[in-house]
Specification:
20 strands; eight-stranded antiparallel β-barrel; about 25% helix; alpha+beta
Length: about 300
């Protein structure tokens, strides 16, 4: 009995001796999300792993551990809503934007509606208030800019001896507010201005010649007076001038309204507005009266495009 007991004690002591590593555990690695505190020398552990501190997935990032950065699953992805007139393409989840707002597609105010966005219907300001005879809707088909060409002789324009293109343009602008403008141009304004410069040079030399001066003397006189010769003076005088300015043809401002197949025109709403029959066929507008001064039976305009 004593021998058996003694043998058992010896076995236990031997087993304990085998299981003991003799490590003093002086150097530890702190616990992390997956591993408990661990001895660097023998691998002994103490306590438990910390476990992950998860943050929910976002549009750009999957579920992520705040402690170690490990991820799980996938990012949610953005839930985009389309751009609008005032807001860029936007994620409903996180509020991130992409690109820019579309911007309003404004349509001018009319007698029926204020300035209105054709895309979203937003409005700004007030509708146009004008004479009750005028309605934007009734004039919609003729609104815009129209041009007609009228060949003119130098004599008709008071430019005896002028050599150049004299195909005059009459531009008619029918507004959406009852205003009606007429302005004057030339088919090839650059060529006209060049020819007009030559015409002015000839005219100036002719004036100096009438005073008994040669071209050389005329140039010297101009240099003394203006710091440039006759050619330079003429070019400077014509520079940047339009046909209307050169010819003294001021723009005309009128008012109008449409009734049936007639356009009523007048200098202002208090004046008597005279009717003129018109025919609209596609991009051609024909007035039953001649407004070019060429004694034609009618005036044919073509719609101008931007």
């Amino acid at each position: 009995m004593k021998k058996t007991y003694l043998l058992t004690v010896l076995v236990l002591v031997f087993a304990l001796a085998l299981s003991a590593c003799g490590c003093k555990h002086e150097t530890w690695i702190d616990a992390d999300c997956i591993t408990p505190k661990t001895c660097t020398e023998c691998g002994a552990t103490e306590g438990e792993a910390l476990g992950h501190a998860w943050t929910d997935a976002t549009c750009d990032a999957p579920k992520t551990c705040e402690t170690c950065g490990e991820t799980e699953g996938e990012a949610l992805g953005h839930a985009w809503t389309d751009a609008t007139c005032e807001t860029a393409k936007t994620c409903e989840t996180c509020g991130l934007t992409d690109g820019e707002a579309l911007g309003h597609d404004w349509q001018d105010a009319t007698t029926e509606l204020p300035k209105t966005c054709a895309t979203c219907g937003a409005t700004e300001g007030e509708k146009i208030t004008t004479d009750p005879r005028f309605a934007t809707a009734a004039t919609a088909e003729v609104q815009g800019k129209w041009v007609c060409e009228a060949p003119m002789s130098a004599a008709e324009l008071g430019l005896e001896g002028f050599e150049g293109d004299l195909t005059m343009q009459i531009i008619m602008d029918l507004g959406n507010d009852g205003t009606f403008g007429i302005s004057f141009g030339i088919a090839d304004e650059e060529a006209f201005n060049s020819a007009m410069t030559d015409y002015l040079v000839k005219s100036l030399y002719a004036e100096f010649e009438a005073q008994g001066m040669s071209k050389e003397e005329a140039d010297e006189a101009m240099k003394l007076a203006y710091g440039m010769d006759v050619q330079g003076y003429a070019a400077a005088a014509m520079s940047g001038m339009s046909f209307g300015e050169i010819m003294g043809m001021a723009d005309i401002k009128l008012v109008y309204y449409v009734e049936g197949d007639e356009i009523f025109l007048g200098t202002d709403w208090n004046a008597e507005l005279e009717p003129t029959k018109y025919v609209l066929e596609g991009d051609t507008l024909t007035l039953s009266e001649d407004i070019t001064g060429t004694s034609a039976d009618s005036t044919v305009f073509t719609r101008m495009t931007e």
